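Customer escalation, tier 2.

The customer says the design service returned an amino acid string that "doesn't look like it belongs to this structure." They asked us to rerun it and document both sides in this ticket. The original structure tokens are below, unchanged.
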């Protein structure tokens, strides 16, 4: 497919404020023990009131640009994956462009909930591989704390804020390349996980605010079942497309939603624990940002080295799912 697409830089940013399970258990009827055993989450990061999603996005993006050794003016395109944009429009990508000074870039957002980073990376890959763009910035950033119902114990324990970014660059040499994607969705299951109001069908009103319809609604048990099934399915599909076995992978970064979902994927792929990256104990579920943050952490800690084969797979509202295999 034309040019090779190389991850030339990564970065991430999380707010300093840590919210522990113990603190949540003072607000709703839950315990640290329940949250740890049912989800694996121990704490999450929460943005301060004056912090915008685009602030986190810009911090992660600057780090990725610095690591790639390129200036903001060299970016040809910015693709942002988010479900918690600063405002309905302009898009987060436009706001990020302004913050970075990336004057030459085409700018747009991709909305695919927790699968957003994998979807956005697939878009970036097309532009790089076709030769249309030399450097595409893919930034996944969320402030889920602003759309969390803090009185609902079945959801408020899960989510956190953060951002991750990668620069995807065209390359003619070396082994680094994106090898395959598998993306999918099933709109019939959209009601399982959504924010009911605030869009054009149900604009904000006193009624929607009183009914807490601007916050996340989830049928956790059904989402859980679908997540296990679809994560396994899309990893199998992407490996087949890449002509690889799971045992060929040096590292797998799954979407960080629930440790039990990750464990079922690990068992399904028959991978040892050390090959499957987990950071949800620190950050909870940061939706689109979760894989991007994990990827940047793996690069920073040298858990991922040049030449390694990496698998990533995500699952989320929509429903949507997506997997990617690349040689880092
Ligand atoms: O990013 C992708 C989107 N999200 C996900 O992937 C989330 C997928 N789902 C999950 O992770 C799990 O379904 C949850 C962690 C949300 C819930 O765990 P579960 O084991 O599926 O629990 P459940 O919803 O079946 O509820 C079991 C019990 C219920 O009590 P009863 O009806 O059996 O008396 C709940 O009311 O646990 C109760 N419960 C809680 N108890 C203490 C639900 N949340 C809590 C809580 N603390 N925080």
């Amino acid at each position: 497919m034309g040019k090779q697409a190389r991850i030339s830089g990564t970065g991430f940013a999380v707010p300093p404020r840590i919210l522990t399970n113990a603190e949540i258990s003072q607000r709703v009827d839950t315990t640290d023990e329940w949250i740890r055993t049912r989800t694996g989450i121990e704490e999450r990061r929460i943005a301060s009131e004056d912090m915008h999603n685009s602030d986190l996005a810009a911090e992660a993006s600057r780090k990725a640009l610095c690591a790639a050794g390129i200036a903001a003016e060299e970016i040809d395109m910015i693709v942002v994956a988010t479900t918690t944009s600063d405002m309905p429009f302009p898009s987060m990508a436009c706001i990020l462009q302004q913050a970075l000074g990336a004057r030459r870039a085409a700018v747009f957002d991709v909305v695919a909930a927790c699968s957003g980073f994998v979807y956005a990376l697939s878009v970036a890959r097309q532009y790089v591989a076709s030769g249309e763009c030399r450097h595409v910035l893919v930034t996944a950033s969320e402030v889920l704390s602003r759309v969390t119902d803090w009185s609902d114990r079945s959801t408020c324990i899960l989510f956190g804020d953060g951002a991750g970014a990668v620069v995807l660059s065209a390359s003619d040499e070396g082994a680094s390349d994106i090898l395959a994607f598998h993306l999918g969705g099933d709109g019939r299951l959209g009601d399982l996980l959504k924010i009911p109001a605030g869009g054009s069908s149900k604009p904000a009103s006193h009624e929607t605010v009183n009914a807490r319809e601007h916050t996340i609604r989830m049928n956790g048990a059904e989402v859980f079942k679908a997540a296990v099934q679809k994560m396994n399915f899309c990893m199998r599909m992407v490996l087949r497309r890449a002509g690889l076995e799971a045992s060929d992978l040096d590292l797998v970064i799954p979407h960080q939603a629930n440790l039990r979902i990750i464990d079922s994927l690990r068992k399904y792929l028959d991978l040892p624990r050390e090959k499957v990256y987990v950071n949800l104990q620190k950050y909870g579920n940061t939706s689109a940002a979760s894989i991007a943050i994990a990827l940047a952490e793996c690069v920073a800690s040298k858990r991922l080295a040049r030449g390694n084969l990496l698998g990533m797979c995500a699952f989320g509202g929509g429903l949507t799912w997506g997997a990617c295999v690349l040689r880092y």
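Tier 2 assessment: The sequence is consistent with the input. The first strand starts at residue 4 and ends at 13. Residues 4-174 form a domain with the Peroxisomal Thiolase; Chain A, domain 1 fold (CATH 3.40.47.10). Sent an explanation to the customer and offered a walkthrough call.
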